[in-house]
Design goal:
single chain; two-stranded parallel sheet; about 30% strand
Length: about 160
Amino acid sequence: MAVSWRSSAEELARILRTRGVDPAAVTSTAAAWRAFREFTQARIGGLDHGPDSDGFIVQWGRYRWDDHQLSISFTRQLAVPAADHGRPGRQPDLWQVSLTIVFGDDPALDCLETGRDSGTGFRFEPRGPERGAALDDAEARDQVQAALAARPVHSYLRLEPCD
């Protein structure tokens, strides 16, 4: 059964909790990643039917909204039919479910500094083995490996529209 895109953040929170992870206080980035992998395979209802309607991205760096601390975000991007049904041909609205994990300064996380790659890029492989392989590719990145081994300072989960 599909979960509504509107409750997709609650679904990720549910999966996290079943793995013993508090979305507001992640203590194991690796456990959070395993939950995110499961979430990216969950069927989400109410999406647009285009090829780029359901994908993921992993991003890292220092951002002002995280007080310039190092962070990594596991994000699933969802395209939903535009709210304004009166305009034919309008592009779908984009929403993102993001689990952001913030770290303290640690030399082992220097690879998360922006200036190099700051993310995996959006991946839109279909759910199933193809998406699993894309997640394997993301997980193999040095930055993701470093974050998986690091201890978080805090975390937060959001569902928000893309600007």
